[in-house]
Amino acid sequence: MVLSDITIDNLSFSYDNADVLKDISLQFQEPNLTCIIGPNGVGKTTLVKCINKLLKPHQGRVLLDGTDINNISLFEMAKKMAFVPNSVSSIFSMTVAEAVLMGRYPHSGWVTSAEDLQIVEEMISTMHLEDLAERNFRELSAGQTQRVVIARGLAQEPEILILDEPTSNLDVKHQMEIMNFLSNYSKKMGIKVIMVCHDLNITAAFADRIVMMHQGRIFADGTARQVMTAENIREVYDVNARVIDVEGKPHIIMLKD
Ligand SMILES: Nc1ncnc2c1ncn2[C@@H]1O[C@H](COP(=O)(O)OP(=O)(O)OP(=O)(O)O)[C@@H](O)[C@H]1O
Hints:
Layout lengths: L5 E10 L2 E11 L4 E5 L6 H8 L7 E6 L2 E2 L5 H7 E4 L11 H6 L3 H4 L5 H13 L15 H14 L4 E5 L7 H18 L2 E5 L3 H7 L2 E6 L2 E6 L1 H4 L2 H8 L3 E6 L2 E6 L3
Parallel strand pairs: 3-8, 3-9, 6-7, 7-8
Antiparallel strand pairs: 1-2, 1-4, 4-5, 9-10, 11-12
Helix pairs in contact: 5-6
The structure holds adenosine-5'-triphosphate.
Family: Belongs to the ABC transporter superfamily.
Pfam families: ABC_tran (PF00005)
Keywords: ATP-binding, Nucleotide-binding, Transport
């Protein structure tokens, strides 16, 4: 079965008069883990928000299975695509389990089935949240919140899963666990996982494809070996780095100067 794909066609975006994204064209057709990287303020979050219809590009289109997302309702989109934002706050008091259950809304509306509850339980267990399931979502630490929001995105059973810096608040063990999980999950379920990431070594170790942004444009797009070169890192981040091979993957060592 071929699951949904996404195409970004010549997309540009500005906030007021400040141009942020310029002529971005990308296709996501393979079931794999793609990491979007680039310096602060380059437009990574803006790009994933455009893909999720949270922002409207001023030029170009985003196509979901060939249809312009402007012609698809958010509710219909949510059946195929889940967005895990970098930070969330809830004005409602709810348990962790209830927060994860919200991921089922695009499929079940407000009527919860036994299947919904089973999926919620599975995702709580996948994210090792069993001990927190009955805790108030608003009282969690930043890292715990991040794992709950990922579980909610997974409960949505998306064909395209988009995450904005999902590991930024996680300790190293949970970072490795989540990256391993996302990498395996994309292949096992045949889905596209697209995530924004700041950590170059985590990206190089786990991403099947890396999209490197620079000055609002796509600067490089390919495998870790193709994209993570000392030249690209110098050009895009303005730092000197040495790239060595660790277990067949590039590993980046930052140099003082
Ligand atoms: N709501 C907004 N209104 C005006 N400008 C904005 C808004 N949100 C972001 N920007 C600006 O757009 C540019 C891109 O921001 P964006 O958050 O997409 O970058 P980013 O690559 O995700 O950055 P970071 O790595 O710091 O998270 C930045 O210059 C930012 O200041």
